[in-house]
Amino acid sequence: MARVVKKFGGTSVADLDRIRAIATKVKAAVDAGDQVVVVVSAMSGVTNKLVGYVQDASPLYDLREYDAVVAAGEQVTAGLTAIVLQEMGVDARSWLGWQLPVHTTDAHGLARIEDIDTELLEERLNQGQVAVIAGFQGIGPDNRITTLGRGGSDTTAVAFAAALKADRCDIYTDVDGVYTTDPRIVSQARKLDYITYEEMLEMASLGAKVLQTRSVELAMRYRVPLQVLSSFSDEPGTMVVDEEDIVEQAEISGIAYSSDEAKITIEHVPDRPGVSAAIFGPLADANINVDMIVQNVGPEGDSTDVTFTVPRIDMDRSVKVIKGLEDELGYRAVKFDDHVVKVSVIGVGMRSHAGIASKMFATLADKGINIQVISTSEIKVSVLIADEYTELAVRALHTAYKLDAA
Amino acid sequence: MARVVKKFGGTSVADLDRIRAIATKVKAAVDAGDQVVVVVSAMSGVTNKLVGYVQDASPLYDLREYDAVVAAGEQVTAGLTAIVLQEMGVDARSWLGWQLPVHTTDAHGLARIEDIDTELLEERLNQGQVAVIAGFQGIGPDNRITTLGRGGSDTTAVAFAAALKADRCDIYTDVDGVYTTDPRIVSQARKLDYITYEEMLEMASLGAKVLQTRSVELAMRYRVPLQVLSSFSDEPGTMVVDEEDIVEQAEISGIAYSSDEAKITIEHVPDRPGVSAAIFGPLADANINVDMIVQNVGPEGDSTDVTFTVPRIDMDRSVKVIKGLEDELGYRAVKFDDHVVKVSVIGVGMRSHAGIASKMFATLADKGINIQVISTSEIKVSVLIADEYTELAVRALHTAYKLDAA
Asked: Best of A58, A60, A63, A117 to disrupt the B interface by mutation (most B CBs within 10 Å)?
């Protein structure tokens, strides 16, 4: 007997036929003797529709009301899934975020789970009842519904797996696992059997939209064995595990890219102590997440050019913040560009393999692609390039690191 | 300053433009210094869609899960209405059934409100905040969402008006008041300025679908002044009030009809003590609501024919119950007919006016309409006739009682 959490995304519960299909998977696990917790998203399209209503109602909407509105989607799916399971003879009941409850912070719209009361759930699981949890939602200290941000049902699933000390957390989606890169760009992309938490975290935050980043962080912290697999097949997916659980580690596990970036350059800033703080302090105050940063000494030696990237949707706001600092900073010009893409090679193997970065630079140079900004971490190298080179760069790197399927 | 509850039905909140229109009405009341509680239904069509999902999921669905699913509709409207009010500069917040909470019985799908905790609400109303209540829902003793049956938001509104000792409860709908009869059948039908609780109760339970019957019962018990009016105009509607508040009372206030009836006749039942109990006990046990009953002594004097009506949807079930009693009762035959309609004349005035019933019978006889069953109460006379005479009968009665518009 194992205890498993199974999370089904929006396309897996898009209509009643799909819900019946996933219920069949749940029943199979129950029949095999497993204790099963099901976490469901809203039917595909529903959350977008509800978010659209809210945005139409007011451009500056109250996030507490936003949460009440959008959480309704998962509520519907949870109830329907419980009914379908019961119809198949499986003992099941739905649980909404406020019912257990799932306690979260008060950051409406992007709350974090703080604590899950699992006492009642443990009791029911031990009696053989399947718990169908409405994903994405909890209850804040103000006794109002909170939501966890888009993709939040992944985090709900992992949080329950951690709280219930589940043997495995299966994330069912419309792809059959994690790939070495986006198969829509590289037809030679391969499904990975294993990937480490650290790599998955980089993949998720660098644009591979398989899992919500926070869910991977949580899985890593609590060492929840995670599986990403398709709800439309019975094939095993990709296991996200500890590094020591992977016998043979390749240099590089995957190539990710993200088009959600914009580049801003402040030219000819007088080079004096405190200038970085004067730039990035106000951006942080405006809640803008700065990612890559480079600073070059200018030709005259007394000034510097500062280049950084921000989320594309924050570009205009960022430029406005910088223009407001013109008198204080005394720079010459602000330039901005949203025709950029961040391409990253990721792999825990690079800790023990030299030359990963230089191979990347050489491969891109060979294709005539100019690198605008570079940033590195222990397990990834990212470069910012013009977005017209996206496919060319990703394909060349996939081949260079020997990731192409045989 | 008055304290008012304003309830808006599904067509009044069908989309964001409609929600903006009703929010304008709410703002006008707030600007005039009123304390306002808004009760909203689901957007029109949403509840039917959710009920359809549930029925598709399982023919014998768990009513607790049904409640979780269908309550989502009002949750969405409540949040959106609060946002739209805020956008207009009105302080507002949404409240879901479980948040105050609205305590109900555990009869999922058709729960009754037992108690509303209004402490927090009173506080907010006194601070000038508009409360937007998700109608139709509450929380049961099992800590799960309950719903109050179709049309339940009317009952939510009246229950809040009673609990908050509101000065008035306005029920906004897509018609501009209560009419002397269905204007689709009688073009001469007139809008009533006033109607008594007792009459409204008969109208509601006899097929005039303006208000949920239970909401009228509740308004009558707590003497909540109720107004039925259109959300699409600014005209006053129909006030539902105490009898003593109506200066000049007509003999008859209205003509109602209901096609939701079916007639069952048990022929030649041996006439012995306890036979009625033997018939109607098992029907009650099967949760079938018997309405009109007549019993005639048969020609031989030792047997009787029993005729009664049941809701049309329960006809087949009722016949089955009666057939199961064949050995015990020893009757000759069971006949059933769902091509019947119940037509009723209603008015508290008939207490002090003689000849109301005989005028009804004469009017119908004059048109050659055969009366199959009669039942009366203090303020109404109902007859069961063949449904092909519906329009003819309603029009003739409307004229006979001088209800036609001048």
From this structure: A58
The residue type at B259: S
A207, A256 in Cβ contact below 8 A? yes
ipTM reported for the complex surpasses 0.85: no
Whole-angstrom CA distances from B273 to A110, B100, B279, B302 are 71, 52, 12, 12
Tokens describing residue B45:
């069509």
CATH architecture of B3-174: 3-Layer(aba) Sandwich (3.40)
Q: B64 CB near a chain A CB, below 8 Å?
A: yes
Tell me, yes or no, if A51 comes closer than 8 A to chain B by beta carbon: no
Which residues, at least 6 apart from B242, have a Cβ–Cβ distance to it below 8 Å? B196, B197, B223
Q: Tell me if B344 sits within 8 A of B309, measured CB to CB.
A: no
| CB contacts, 8 Å: A84 with chain B | 57-58
- Domain assignments of chain A as residue spans, ordered by start: 3-174
Q: What is the pLDDT of residues A187-246, one digit of tens each?
A: 999 999 999 999 999 888 776 678 888 999 999 999 999 999 999 998 999 999 998 887
Which of left, alpha, beta for A84 (phi over 0: left; psi -120 to 50: alpha)? alpha
State whether A72 and B69 contact (CB < 8 Å).
no
This prediction's pTM: 0.84
Task: Tell me the nearest-neighbour CA distance from B232 into chain A, angstroms.
Answer: 20
Q: Is the peptide bond before B59 cis (omega within 30 degrees of 0)?
A: no
Question: Is the Cβ pair A16, B53 closer than 8 Å?
Answer: yes
